[in-house]
């Protein structure tokens, strides 16, 4: 491998051995290099380097950022086609960054990255450190010999700690294993391979429909997929590649026309944010070359043509594995007309060209009724896009004992209709049976479901008030009908439509707070250029606040989404039909 890497670093390559993509390939097929791809990455890295040089001594950088800055500089330094190839002006900054990698390392070989003495967080940095050492070793420049000595010391100090330490989250297992695979490749040690095998023996946390247990595009793209590919490549474990293939295949149905990836069902931080597809670039390239799937080619080429994101970071991956730069198989259209159901996360995706929709009923709230990191609690149950007109969320909040937003208990799919439902039961507690009563009145502190009190709730008989909510999302020729059916005690509710900033609302009334509007009657619209979403009808002028629930309000929290928020209100029991039209 060093010889292959060193040859490639000269920048003179015209062919690559694509068989190297698969660790058990019987032979390496010679393929032409995708020169446009190499030029794109080279230019992107050359854009990064001045930015690194301008602030490489930033005291606030985490060790992961320090390692990534060094990787960006070294990628340019060793790459024969870069304008920074063997540029001595990079050596002093590199020296400072490499010294930081050594100076910030604890005696046990680990780093603090938010978490203290963290094996998984250290692994993110050590993967880059291994790349740095391998590149400089292959380049074999006398000027970088001191850097290599320091980097080797960092790796040898860290790897035993990674092989003995623990993790916090599912994806950490694969990050640690990939770092150990790299360390073992450079400095073989049976402890490293034994720990990799321990983690792998637990099984890969992927569902049959290709979704990892964290259901996160962020961690699939940045951690799990690249790490599994690294382990497959360095440890000769080709079965891992199929997990990545299935995840990339599933991701095809979460892609938005503008390059975003739907993250509604995530159990991690991206359940409430935006994610872009560019992070997947080399994964889609590798699996296109490995499987011949032209759909993967299309995604990779769309990322390249869009040109957004830190594409320069992929140069290091290609320098390390030249076969990634081979000309891709012929492109084939990605799915643009479908209804795709993902049972593992109770979600569905619908696409009709430029119109896409997400229906989501798979929060963890009904199994684990709390708000916590690692749980899916996103109250958005529907999203709709019509080109540039984006309805980022539809949410529902009944005024029912401060129990908060509607969160569906699953999803049922029947043709073009998607059924969501929830039953919320709130108790009134009756006197304790005599056998549980205490003369001193000191009862156990127990949960009611919304709050805690010294009431020994678990032993009390109860009277319940119940709210039953059913929502049917039905695709029609020019959009969707959302039919809300409510059964229970008389109360009020609010439906919140949150549109992406940048468009124009019409037919709605402004409310007191900035960004808040109400549709009282008739039909409203949201327009961006030639793209439009119409919504309605309004259902009355009563103002009903969105209630995020006592779990949020007690601590002053909020679930108000960013954007232009339009509210429709009504009364329970009853029915309301919300029509969303895209033409």
Task: Tell me about this structure.
With 583 residues, this protein is an alpha+beta fold. The protein has two domains: 2-325, Alpha/alpha barrel (Glycosyltransferase); 337-427 and 466-581. It is built from 14 helices and 21 strands. The protein has helices at 2-9, 35-55, 63-78, 91-103, 119-139, 145-164, 170-186, 190-201, 217-235, 239-251, 281-291, 294-306, 314-320, 550-553; strands spanning 15-17, 30-32, 111-113, 115-118, 337-342, 347-352, 355-360, 382-386, 389-398, 412-414, 417-429, 445-447, 452-454, 462-476, 479-499, 504-506, 509-510, 516-518, 524-528, 531-536, 564-581. The protein has a 15-stranded mixed β-sheet that branches. Strand 12 and strand 13 (452-454) form a beta hairpin. The relative contact order is 0.08. The model is unreliable at 1-8 (pLDDT under 50). InterPro entries: Chondroitin_lyas (IPR008929), TAT_signal (IPR006311).
What keywords describe this structure?
583 residues; 24% strand; 15-stranded mixed beta sheet; 2 domains; 14 helices; Glycosyltransferase; alpha+beta; globular; single chain
Instruction: Report the C-alpha radius of gyration, rounded.
Output: 27 Å
CATH architecture name of the largest domain: Alpha/alpha barrel
Number of domains: 2
Structural class: alpha+beta
How many extended strands?
21
Q: Could you tell me the strand content as a percent range?
A: 15-25%
Helical residue percent band: 25-40%
> What is the tally of helical segments?
14
- Provide the residue-averaged pLDDT: 94
Largest sheet: 15 strands, mixed
| Sequence stretches where pLDDT stays below 50 over 5 or more residues | 1-8
In terms of quaternary structure, the protein is single chain
Main CATH class of the largest domain: Mainly Alpha
Protein name: Heparinase II/III-like protein
InterPro entries: Chondroitin_lyas, TAT_signal
Signal peptide: 1-28
Keywords: Signal
């Amino acid at each position: 491998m060093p010889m292959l890497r060193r040859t490639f670093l000269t920048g003179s390559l015209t062919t690559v051995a694509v068989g190297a993509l698969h660790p058990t390939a019987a032979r390496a097929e010679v393929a032409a290099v995708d020169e446009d791809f190499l030029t794109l990455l080279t230019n992107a890295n050359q854009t990064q380097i001045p930015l690194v040089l301008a602030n490489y001594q930033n005291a606030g950088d985490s060790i992961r950022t320090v390692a990534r800055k060094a990787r960006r500089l070294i990628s340019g330094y060793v790459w024969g086609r870069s304008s920074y190839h063997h540029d001595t002006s990079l050596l002093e900054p590199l020296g400072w960054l490499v010294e930081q990698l050594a100076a910030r390392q604890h005696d046990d070989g680990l780093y603090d990255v938010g978490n203290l003495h963290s094996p998984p967080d250290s692994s993110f940095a050590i993967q880059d450190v291994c790349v740095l050492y391998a590149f400089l070793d292959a380049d074999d420049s006398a000027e970088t010999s001191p850097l290599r000595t320091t980097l080797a010391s960092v790796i040898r100090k860290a790897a035993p700690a990674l092989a003995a330490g623990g993790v916090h989250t599912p994806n950490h297992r694969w990050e640690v294993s990939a770092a150990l695979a790299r360390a073992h490749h450079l400095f073989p040690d049976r402890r490293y391979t034994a720990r990799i095998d321990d983690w792998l023996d637990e099984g890969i946390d992927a569902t049959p429909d290709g979704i990892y247990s964290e259901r996160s595009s962020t961690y699939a793209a940045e951690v799990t997929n690249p790490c599994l590919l690294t382990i497959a490549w360095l440890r000769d474990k080709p079965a891992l590649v199929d997990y990545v293939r299935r995840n990339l295949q599933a991701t095809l149905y979460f892609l938005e026309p503008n390059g975003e990836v739907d993250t509604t069902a995530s159990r991690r931080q991206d359940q409430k944010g935006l994610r872009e597809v560019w992070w997947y670039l080399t994964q889609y390239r590798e699996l296109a070359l490995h499987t011949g799937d032209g759909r993967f080619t299309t995604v990779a080429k769309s990322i390249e043509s869009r040109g957004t994101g830190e594409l320069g970071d992929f140069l290091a991956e290609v320098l390390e594995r030249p076969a990634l730069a081979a000309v891709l198989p012929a492109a084939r259209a990605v799915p643009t007309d479908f209804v795709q159901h993902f049972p593992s996360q109770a979600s569905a995706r619908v696409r009709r060209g430029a119109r896409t929709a997400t229906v989501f009923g798979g929060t963890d709230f009904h199994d684990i009724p709390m708000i916590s990191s690692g749980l899916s609690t996103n109250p958005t149950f529907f999203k709709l896009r019509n080109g540039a007109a984006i309805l980022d969320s539809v949410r529902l909040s009944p005024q029912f004992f401060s129990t908060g937003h509607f969160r569906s208990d699953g999803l049922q799919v029947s043709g073009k209709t998607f059924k969501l439902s929830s039953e919320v039961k709130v108790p009134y507690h009756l006197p304790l049976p005599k056998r549980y009563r205490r003369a001193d009145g000191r009862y156990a502190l127990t949960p009611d479901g919304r709050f805690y009190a010294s009431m020994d709730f678990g032993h009390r008989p109860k009277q319940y008030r119940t709210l039953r909510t059913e929502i049917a999302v039905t695709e029609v020729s020019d959009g969707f009908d959302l039919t809300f059916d409510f059964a229970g005690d008389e109360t009020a509710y609010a439906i919140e439509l949150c549109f992406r900033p940048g468009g124009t609302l019409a037919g709605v009334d402004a409310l007191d707070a900035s960004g808040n509007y109400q549709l009282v009657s008739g039909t409203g619209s949201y327009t961006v250029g030639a793209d439009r979403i119409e919504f309605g009808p309004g259902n009355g002028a009563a103002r009903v606040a969105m209630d995020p629930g006592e779990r949020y309000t007690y601590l002053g929290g909020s679930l108000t989404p960013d954007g232009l928020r339009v509210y429709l209100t009504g009364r329970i029991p009853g029915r309301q039909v919300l029509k969303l039209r895209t033409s």
